[in-house]
Design a protein that fits this description.
Layout lengths: L1 E3 L9 H11 L22 H10 L3 H14 L6 E6 L2 E6 L3 H7 L1 E5 L5 E5 L5 H12 L6 H19 L18 H8 L1
Antiparallel strand pairs: 1-2, 2-3, 3-5, 4-5
Helix pairs in contact: 1-6, 2-3, 5-6
């Protein structure tokens, strides 16, 4: 499920705070396979198509979803939104180098063209909010970057004010390609 601020910035009403709580609240029954609305369908496919899909992913529905990702990436996304899975949600943004440069975060690319916010330096969520606000107040910031900065800041503020949402920082594993020349030097 995606919860976005869209074009209604700034937004501080209680219904939005409640939507954040709903995004991360525990659900009954089987956990969702996908982080967005989905439904069961029945397909009849030739065996060779099933074999080909199985090589992409052992779960056929995930394999089909992966094949559709390039088409989904072409759709426009809000500047920042919550991507929820189970009880947790992360903030995903339209990638911009300015966000990395002005706040000290590192953007990790996602398959749909957006990016996940990660921390490359010791930085608290409160410090990130302050850096976002300072950047928004800078007249040199482009309109698109301003929308992203405001959206991320608003999501963090709304989550902080939600009575049943805990804002937590996590570490992630990032694999980064280095130049072959530098790798050869480090091995010797």
């Amino acid at each position: 499920m995606y919860y976005s601020l869209g074009n209604s910035l700034p937004r501080t009403d209680k219904s939005f705070v409640n939507s954040i709580a709903r995004a991360v609240s525990p659900k009954r029954g089987r956990p969702r396979k996908f982080a967005r609305p989905s439904r069961a369908v029945t397909l009849t496919l030739p065996d060779e198509v099933i074999d080909a899909l199985s090589r992409i992913d052992g779960d056929l529905s995930r394999a089909v979803a992966r094949l559709a990702q390039p088409e989904l990436a072409k759709r426009p996304h809000p500047p920042a939104e919550l991507a929820a899975f189970g009880r947790r949600a992360v903030i995903v943004v339209n990638p911009t180098r300015t966000l990395e440069q002005r706040t000290g975060v590192l953007l990790v690319p996602l398959s749909d063209g957006r990016a996940l916010i990660s921390f490359d330096e010791p930085l608290s969520v409160a410090q990130l909010e302050l850096r976002l606000q300072a950047a928004v107040e800078d007249a040199r910031l482009s309109r698109g970057d301003r929308d992203i900065f405001r959206s991320v800041g608003q999501l963090l503020r709304d989550a902080r004010h939600a009575p049943d949402v805990a804002v937590q920082q996590r570490h992630i594993i990032v694999l980064e390609r280095t130049s072959a020349r530098r790798n050869a030097r480090s091995r010797t």
